[in-house]
Probable butyrate kinase
Amino acid sequence: MFRILAINPGSTSTKIALYEGKELIKSENLSHSREELKKYNKIIDQLDFRYEAIEKWLEENSFTSFHAIVGRGGLLRPMESGTYEVNDEMIKDLKIGVQGEHASNLGGLIAKKIADRFGVKAYIVDPVAVDEFEDIARISGMPEIPRRSLLHALNVKAVAHRVAKDLGKSLEEMNLIVAHLGGGISIVPIKKNKMVDVNNANEMGPFSPERTGGLPVGDLVKLAFSGKYDLATLKKKLTGEGGLVAYLNTNDAREVERRIKEGDKYAELIYNAMAYQIAKEIGAMATVLKGQVEKIVLTGGLSHSKYLTDKISEYISFIGEVLIYPGEDEMIALVEGVLRVLNNEEKAKIY
Ligand SMILES: Nc1ncnc2c1ncn2[C@@H]1O[C@H](COP(=O)(O)OP(=O)(O)O)[C@@H](O)[C@H]1O
Ligand SMILES: CCCC(=O)OP(=O)(O)O
């Protein structure tokens, strides 16, 4: 039975899990508060902090032998869906953040570091750079800045397959909208098993616990030239210090809901605005599918919240039935990707 260690760095957490085949042996979700992460100016600066937390977990549990290590893949060059072996070219691009900064850039780097220590191979599966766009979706209005496919591809694909299975259908014959609501937010129209568009979870669409989402461009350009920010600081403000963090100084939706229950009207306004923006983007993606939407699926950590999913549903249920698949299937999806390679059902792709 193959023993596989899966590592999933998200913007607000690092999830770790050990599997034997498809059986979960043990898992841990290490939440990272805003306070904990704010001292790191760039994502790559968090490498040792997250690596050491994982090493400590391995030591505490006396886990010392693995057949492979798999990490969530990052903002690499646009690529096909699949399982990739971590190689030098990938390490280089993850370190520089070839398509930008995000915690998932650390997945392949940490996986390789641990794999080298144990003399096994490291992989990534369905990274956030998976690109299945139709050409029309790439056009932005400025040729120098095409729209890009950056999204929670791993969970979106895994959940879409689960929905199809639960409905007794094939994804090839369905149109879905999957909204992954986590530290970042991806709203994805799926046409016959292809993710043909997305808001870009790092830079566009609704604001999220940590991200500003799309902003009025004129004012953003003015801010960029105000002399107050260098590039790295402004990028961090957009991707790590936007959304709930900017308005409410927390990336934890549970904390926001506590404040709302205690009567905080400002927290309520901001949280409702996030639901409103999510719903608006789902409406836009329904248009991409020309209204032919079989189901709308809400997933990711925020989908645990009945408050939020009810608010979103108020706006969108006229489009189609809303299904809630809270949390994510990312850890098992990572492991299954590697098992397909180790069992010789697929060949690992080369980056
Ligand atoms: N039960 C819950 N109710 C409301 N929000 C939740 C719940 N569980 C997690 N969250 C929120 O979900 C967000 C993190 O989602 P997750 O998908 O784990 O993100 P990531 O993988 O990007 O770190 C956080 O804002 C967290 O507070
Ligand atoms: C590139 C976007 C992926 C993303 O937003 O993931 P998190 O929700 O884990 O930050």
Observations:
- The chain has two domains: 3-132+330-342, 153-326.
- The mean pLDDT is 96.
